[in-house]
Amino acid sequence: MLRRAKIHRQSATVAEVRALFTDDHVHCALLAEAGRLVAVVDRDELGSGPAGALAARYGTLDGRVVRPGADLEATRLSMLSRGRRRLAVIDENGMLLGLLCLKRSSLGFCTDSDVQARAREQRPASRKSEIARASPSRK
Question: 7-134: CATH homologous superfamily?
Answer without folding.
Answer: CBS-domain (3.10.580.10)
